[in-house]
User: Fold this.
Amino acid sequence: MARVDAAFARTVWQVLEPLHAVTYFAPESHEAQRVVGLRGFWMGYFAARAAPLGAVTAGVVEAAFHNFHPAKVRRAIPDAWHFAPPEAVLRARAEAATAALRRTAPSAADAATRVLPLLERTVAVADGAGRPLFAANRGLPAPDDPVGALWQAVTTLREHRGDGHVAVLTAEGLDGCEAHVLFAACEDVPAETLRTNRGWSEEDWQAAADRLAARGLLDSAGHPTAEALGLRAHVEARTDALAVRPYLALTADEAAELVGLLGVPADQVLTSGTIPFPNPMGLPARDGRGRRPTG
Assistant:
């Protein structure tokens, strides 16, 4: 029987994230974005993730996503909406994610019929205040295909956690680049993967490290101080505490059932080779230790 507490929020993230992430890495998603008219991986990424918000400006995407260099966003948004309107992007992403889940996680269809009522109840009771990506995804109609509906519900809850994580980082005075520098230092992950993937230059990265050092968070060698480790632990704990609230609508037995039902298809995705490791989301491999992504 699962305890529905902050630790549960971290556990459930580890089964939600692989199911959601097929939209970034599966060939079905890349091909759907190309066919709909989007140009290149990053235009597809920004347009598909932002499409629930409508034809928003680059500034809105920069704020909601938090951790990308503004220039990287502006190379894709708003141009993406001239190639494909949000409505077309939403159809393409839903159909592609459904096909990708059916291929990589054969158990998803059976799990969907049993777990959707639990996911839908959780989504319905969640507070959307200050959570733009969550609220926008919750406002979308559920696909008729149960696997598509599963992906949409998982994505909505994933964005709920992500919005809360951004709120905590912002409250702690950490901008997008600083959040990555701190994450890389504390979690011993390759800085280059995060830096280049999110569009930050070496100069941007060093400037962020200097700002963190001025706050006493990095030592002269760039290693995290005790204060930095404490701040990271605080960010993670607050993210978990904010993320768990919707799941309080479930009983302990229902919470355990939710994780159990999603765990099998999540493992199938992880072992399918679809998601690369390491990855900029901070998603651990199947046998890895859980790490919270920076967004």
